[in-house]
Every structure is written in C-alpha cells, then in structure tokens.
Amino acid sequence: MAKETAITMTKIKEKNSDSEKIKDTSSKDGAKIVIKDVKVWYDDFMAIKGIDMNIKPNTVTAFIGPSGCGKSTFLRLFNRMNDYVDGFKMEGKIKLNGTNIYKDKINVEELRKEVGMVFQKPNPFPKSIFENVAYGLKIQGIKDKKILNERVEKALKQADLWTEVKDDLKKSALALSGGQQQRLCIARTLAVEPSILLMDEPTSALDPISTSKIEDLIFELKEKYTIIIVTHNMQQASRISDYTAFFYLGELIEFNKTKAIFTNPEKKQTENYITGRFG
Amino acid sequence: MNNFRKNKLIDHGFKIMGMLFTFLGILILIILIYNIVRVGYTRINWTFLTSLPSRKPESAGIYTAIIGTLDLMLLTVLFAIPVGVGAGIYLEEYAKKSRLSSLLEINISNLAGVPSIIYGLLGLGIFVRFFNFGGSILSGSLTLSLLILPIIIVATREAIKAVPHSLKEASFALGASKWQTIKDVVLPSSFGGILTGIILSLSRAIGETAPLIVVGAMAYVPFVPQSIFDTFSVLPMQIFNWTTRPQQGFAIAASGAIIVLLLITFIMNGIAVYFRNRWQKKLQ
C-alpha cells in the first residue's frame, strides 16, 4: 500500500516537474518576475536594448511609452509570444519564480498556462460563450462536464460577466458587445488559472463605460494575479497601476512607483511624455 | 462644375456598360441551356437513365456513364481531399519561409494551370503502365486527383490565410499547441472556404474528358463496373462519343446526357452553397 502511494507520488512529481518550477504551488498568489539584461532583435533591428527589471507579485505594473518603443515586444516576452515572429532573437534572462523561461527545456505550452494574455482587440473564438471559456481547459484534456461547468462559471464571475450571460451560454460569443467580448476574453484567460496576467492595451478598442468596468476588474484581480498592462492612456496608468515603466526607443527610461512617476519623475523624457509634450 | 458633370456622365455610362456585359454572359448561358433542353428533354426519363449504351440510338441509355461518373468522383474525393488539404495546411502553417518553399508555392500555382491532357499523359505513364492498373476506374480517379490537387491546395491555403491572426494568437496564449490550434481554431474557421474549393474542383473534374480518353476510359461499356479495376465510361465521354455519330438520334441522346451532367453539377454546387451558408450562420 505504502509502496503504491510512493509510486504515485513520484509519477505526479515527474508530471509536474516543469510546471512546478514555474508555479509556486505553496501559495495561489501571482508570480514574481525578474528580468536580467534582456535584448531583442528582429533581424538586424534592435527592438529592446538591454533591460533589467523586477516585478513584484500581486502588483499592477503599467508599461507606457510612444508607439514603437518596444513595450508590446517586451510584454510578449513573458509568454514567449514573440517566438513566432520571423527574425526574432533574444538574449538575457527572464525568471518566473526563479525559473528562466527562455531555457531550452521549458515547455512553452505549460508556460502559457501560467502566463495568461489579453489582447488589444477582443478576439473571441467564433464559438459559443461557454466553448470560449472552456477552450483553455479542454485543450488540457479536461473533459468532465461538471468540472468544466464549475470552472466556466467561476471564470465568468471573476470577469464580472456571469450575470449578463448566464442564461445564454450557448449563444455565439460574436453576438456580444465589444466590452462584453473583452471581458469574455479575460474570463477565458482566467479559466486556465494563470498566476500572471499580461494585458496589451486591453481597453483601447472600448467605450468609456466598458473601459471603467475592465479597470475595476483589474483592481480586483490584483489580489490573486501579477498584472502587467500596456497602455497609451496616461490616466489609466495612473488610476490602476502600482508601478509604471516608461519605455523609449527600446530602452527602459524610468521604472518606479506610479505615484512617483506621475508626480515627480526623475528623468526629463518621462516628464515630457506624461505631460503630453511628445509621443 | 463642367468637370463634375462629365465625371457623373462617365460614372453612369460605365454602370450601364457593366450591366450589359453581365446580362450578355447570362443570356448566352440561357440560350445554350434552352437549346439543349429543347432537343434533349424528350429523352429524359427513367429508361434513359437506367439503360446500358446501345448501337440503336432510341434504346441507348446512360446508366454505365452515370455510375462510372459517380464512382470516379467518389474515389477522386477520397484521394484528393486528404492529400490536398494536408498539403495546404503544411504549406500555410508549418513550412518555414525559404527558397524551397517559395519554389514549391510557385510550382503548385503553375500546376493548377497545366492543360488537363498533360495530366492524362502523366496518368497513362504512371498509373496505367507503371503501376499496371490499366484503363480502370482506379487509374482514372488517381489521374483526376492529380488534376484537382493544386486547386484544393490553393483553396485550402487561401481559406487558412483568411483566418484572423488574432484567433491563432488567442489559442496559443491559452497554452494550445500548434496542432490543437489548427484542429480547434484554424480548420473550423476555414471549413467553408476549403469546402467551396473542394466542390469547385470536383465540378471541374466531373466535366473532364481529355485526360480520361488518354487514360483509357471507354465510350462503349455494356456493363456496370463491379470493382475499381474495371474499365469504365463517364458522362462527358458518352456525350463526346454520341456527338460524333452521324445519326440524329444520338444527337438527341447527347443532349439528354448533357442535361443530366448539368443537373449533377448544379446539385453539387448547390450543396456547397448550402453548407457554406449554414456554416456562416453557425459562426454568427
């Protein structure tokens, strides 16, 4: 009996050995991210010119900067979304809870279950609302109807969409409004239970009311997740983030508490940008 | 002001011209169909459809040709769809951009334009002689599969290309592997386009005569093929043969066979349109 248990334990350990390193299983909190001297090239173009940064768990960090400054590229490093871009080359280290995610052995699919992403334009699948939220679970092989129902409901509640859609989960997700679609995309991401949430200008295609709903949501989600958000909206950055990083031409110009950045920036460039004098 | 009026006049003139050309195309088609139906409708009855070919035009039927056509299409679909769709997926999703892959791309596009008789010769060399399948349904369908492969590949690629990149990204970001993304997101979204390509290519295959003549389809097959190694005839073959006969009766029979061939083609296209519309509705 004891032997059997021991074997099962090793099996589980083997199975989880990769994900265990990424996910800090002792707590259900967001993960800590450490970035060391990261450089990125697209063919000959150097998009990121050596960035160091530490992101604390359970905080909201805003990336700001003019278009083309590398903030989206930088964000997409954390779930290795740049891997598909032709000519992409990367140097340096990014550690999630101590594991370098650009190590050869890393299972990228496993990583992306830990690092969820919400995109600029709402991109629901042309499937039903239920199928959209269940997608991430189904590809993991979860088939049990009961578990799926529970997790879908939980995710939709977390994304503050449940009351609006609970009666027509079978309806196509494309029939929802833009704001609802974006919250659906957030629910879809949360259903996989990541520890980090990357958001690439999640409200830039939405009206002010939908935007404020999503901002409230981010504020609530902070308790459980580490959130990084790219935004072009200065007010948004100051409203919702704890830390703000200002990027310019592939360099990290300034990274500090949001309050400090917006009231008393150390660099002239930062001040010029947030006051709207350039960019 | 003058210029403004002139532009408006040109605009209007162009609209009328376009309309005329559109009606011209349709008018010619209507005249053609009218002529055939006028001559051939007398032969359209159950006996015509279920009779074997004969030397006497009055008793000649198209049973073997219909069965041959259906058998041939069925086998062609079985061969061409997996290979064509598979190749399309590979080229669009997996193949790295290299000189080899762009060479492949250009060649596939070119193959779609190769005259069908060349495919017939290819089929004769490979399937009839080398593999020794003879002038059988198998040889014919393999040859037609080669003929429509490029069309299916190109259609599959276009359909896959039309799937928004953002959907693929969403799938990857949720931890899906490449194959899961293709299976669950890319293929369902491009199904309508792929299906349309397949049916259009079959509509082309169903009317092909030249390559089948080369491969060895018979005009006179007095029995229904029992296996894929039997000789066969198809509707276009039968029509071609009858139109070359001097007797007036065979001309009427040919018109009858043309009506049947057109009906089969229309029905196939109709099915394609139906599936595509239903698919689009399902997505909305």
Account of the protein in words:
The complex is a heterodimer of chains A (279) and B (284). In chain A, the strands form two sheets. Chain A has a six-stranded mixed beta sheet with strand order 6-7-8-3-9-10. In chain A, strands 2-1-4-5 form a four-stranded antiparallel beta sheet, with no helix packed on it. With 279 residues, chain A is an alpha/beta fold. Chain A has a single domain, classed as Rossmann fold (3-Layer(aba) Sandwich), CATH 3.40.50.300. In chain A, β7, α8 and β8 form a beta-alpha-beta unit. The relative contact order of chain A is 0.17. Chain A has helices at 2-22, 71-75, 108-114, 129-138, 145-158, 162-165, 178-191, 208-221, 234-240, 258-263, 268-274; strands at 33-42, 45-55, 60-64, 88-96, 99-100, 115-118, 196-200, 226-230, 243-248, 251-257. With 284 residues, chain B is mainly alpha-helical. Chain B folds into two domains: 2-43; 46-283, MetI-like fold (Orthogonal Bundle). In chain B, 77% of the residues lie in helices and 0% in strands. Chain B contains eleven helices and no strands. In chain B, α3 packs antiparallel against α8 (178-206). The radius of gyration of chain B is 23 Å and the shape is globular. Chain B starts with a helix and ends with a helix. The A-B interface holds A 79, 81, 84, 86, 109-110, 112-113, 116-117, 119, 121, 123-127, 135-136, 138-140, 172, 174-175, 185, 188-189, 192 and B 97, 164, 166-167, 169-177, 180, 184-185, 188-189, 283-284.
